[in-house]
Fold these 2 entries.
Entry 1:
Amino acid sequence: MNTKGAKWMITVSPNAADRIKKIQDETKASDKSVRIAVVGGGCSGPQYQMGFDVSYDGDSTFQTNGVTVVVDNQSLPLLDGTEIDYVDGAHGSTFVFNNPNTIKSGGNGGCGCGKSGC
């Protein structure tokens, strides 16, 4: 459920929701929402920030799979349609942002500029 207009949508997969709830319990942050933000980006696309926080005036709030997500109004259009997932891989486990608004550069989806930090 989106509390500020039905235009925007962000979802959390069941795997990500389970992991978020576990972290909330471990860190005693069960009374906080999950804040998602876009914090710049390089030629490989946006960088995401995720942490526990309270909701402020102007934030949009989403309820998905038992998790409350808050997003500031500047990040919201950049995150529309994003699904946050949690995956286990050969190199560890991580949250993954499946954002349909990003375009990957380079032949294999990576940065081709030669600079670090992109």
Entry 2:
Amino acid sequence: MEESYGKFIQAHLSGKDTNFCLAYFLTMEFARSSTEKKHEEVVGLFKDSYRYFETLDQKKIQSEAEVKAEKG
């Protein structure tokens, strides 16, 4: 866990895609939880996690735009 967390922090601080980093971190923790996880499960979790974080970002951007529109 410490190694993957370190990679996440390094990637985040270097300005790489934060959503990718979060999805990667969750996926690595999921993969470590059991050695019997299938590759397809791990890849599926990564894709789902990434889409989830992207959706959260889009909702945040939309909310901020709505607040600005109300003020302006």
